[in-house]
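Q: Study each token:
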Amino acid sequence: MAKSVKIILFQPDIAANVGAVLRLCACMNIPIEIIEPCGFPFDMRQIRRVALDYINHVKLHRHVSWEAFHANSMERGSRLILLSTRGKVRYDQFAFLPDDMLLFGRESAGVPNAIHQAADAILRVPLAREMRSLNVATAAAMTLGEALRQTSLLPGDENER
């Protein structure tokens, strides 16, 4: 299997955000994995409202728990890169690798401390001082764009084909 940056969503709370990230992944031709349980009933009809027909073009894998994901991810040997408001390193100052897994936490609570400890790196998206956080889909788009740029994995546009 070819190397590919991946997006991992940890127990997402909002179906529309999942739909937006699924659409992002389809458009960038990268896989997405979702660690459950979600904070909403996982209903593709709700998700499709934002993902539209792009959902038919995304490689989606769901894990029943963090433990199931972690056991599977350890076999791959990829780095787990956590995006967190607690990160000390800015995402744009980090050297991404082509098979990094970009992990985004719950909109309401992030990820537990044990997952912080399991991460190979913890990054942040810089914000204005008064702001708490970005929408998870926005943070994913910014970080994924930089990771794909650095690793020369950005898909070409129609004029380049």
Summary: The longest helix spans residues 136-150. DSSP finds five helices and seven strands in the chain.
